[in-house]
């Protein structure tokens, strides 16, 4: 039996709400459980209905869609957020409030079909304990003003540098403002291991474990030149994870 996706639509334009409702109602697994024409009313509806997904317009009077999305992050059960807006230039800000997706009006069947697939995959991942930011089984990062979704299996390691977390994947480095401890939590369910207070490594990418000094080690990771430190406090647990 398919899980019903409970959806709330929040937009101050009635036509836009009707258009989204029409497109979403073509899917039998979707149930529109509420609508609102402002951010304030939308917050009330979401708290009362506890939907799986909320479609939010960005430019609304008084409480904007971005402000509403921030408020929703304080809920016990945070719904997935999809921004549905006429403005393409808010995409990076949308990513920063952990939006699942960003649709630009006018909507079409292909857009809706794609976002529904991502919703279902994300909810399945969450139920399996593999909950990730802004993506279906993927980690969202900024790259020169764009949003890139990285698959955990492609991430070699992460490390903290100044106020940024650097994510090394596909022979490139991406930056994130999210603390490494928060990314570690989001990557639960995948084979990542903390080797140092500033490093998180994908165990599937380890090529060689090299003894260093004073009981510490260094790691060589597939496709990466940098050797990664393993502090003494983590050596025993790492060897156990690697079954050495």
In words, what does this structure look like?
The chain is 30% helix and 32% strand. Helix 2 (39-49) runs parallel beside helix 3 (65-72). Strand 4 (80-85), helix 4 and strand 5 (101-104) form a beta-alpha-beta unit. The chain is elongated and about 65 Å long. The chain is α/β, with parallel strands linked by helices.
Task: Give me a quick take on this structure.
The protein is 30% helix and 32% strand. By secondary structure, the protein is an alpha/beta fold. It is elongated and about 65 Å long.
Q: Which secondary structure elements does this structure contain, and how are they paired or packed?
A:
Blueprint: E1 5-10, H1 14-24, E2 30-36, H2 39-49, E3 53-56, H3 65-72, E4 80-85, H4 91-96, E5 101-104, H5 109-127, E6 139-143, E7 146-150, E8 155-161, E9 164-169, E10 172-176, H6 180-186, E11 192-196, E12 199-202, E13 206-211, E14 217-221, E15 228-230, H7 232-241
Parallel strand pairs: 1-2, 1-3, 3-4, 4-5
Antiparallel strand pairs: 6-7, 8-9, 8-12, 9-10, 11-12, 13-14, 14-15
Helix pairs in contact: 2-3
Give unreliable regions as ranges: 128-136
Structural class of the helices, strands and pairings? alpha/beta
Structure summary, number of beta strands: 15
Largest sheet: 5 strands, parallel
Record keyword descriptors for this entry:
7 helices; 244 residues; elongated; alpha/beta; 5-stranded parallel β-sheet; 32% strand; 30% helix; 15 strands
């Amino acid at each position: 039996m398919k899980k019903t996706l409970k959806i709330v639509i929040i937009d101050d334009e009635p036509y836009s709400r009707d258009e989204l409702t029409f497109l979403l109602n073509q899917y039998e697994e979707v149930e529109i459980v509420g609508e609102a024409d402002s951010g304030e009313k939308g917050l009330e509806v979401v708290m009362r209905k506890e939907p799986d997904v909320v479609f939010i317009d960005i430019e609304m009077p008084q409480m904007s869609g971005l402000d509403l999305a921030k408020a929703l992050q304080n809920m016990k059960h945070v719904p997935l957020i999809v921004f549905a807006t006429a403005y393409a230039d808010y995409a990076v800000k949308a990513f920063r409030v952990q939006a699942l997706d960003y649709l630009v009006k006018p909507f079409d069947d292909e857009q809706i079909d794609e976002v529904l697939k991502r919703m279902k995959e994300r909810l399945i991942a969450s139920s399996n304990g593999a909950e990730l930011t802004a993506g279906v089984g993927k980690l969202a990062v900024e790259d020169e003003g764009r949003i890139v979704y990285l698959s955990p299996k492609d991430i070699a390691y992460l490390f903290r540098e100044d106020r940024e977390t650097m994510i090394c994947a596909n022979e490139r480095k991406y930056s994130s403002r999210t603390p490494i401890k928060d990314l570690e939590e989001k990557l639960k369910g995948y084979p990542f291991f903390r080797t140092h207070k500033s490093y998180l490594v994908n165990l599937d990418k380890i090529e060689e474990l090299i003894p260093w000094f004073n009981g510490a080690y260094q790691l060589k990771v597939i496709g990466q030149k940098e050797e990664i430190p393993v502090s003494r406090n983590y050596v025993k647990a790492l060897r156990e994870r690697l079954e050495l």
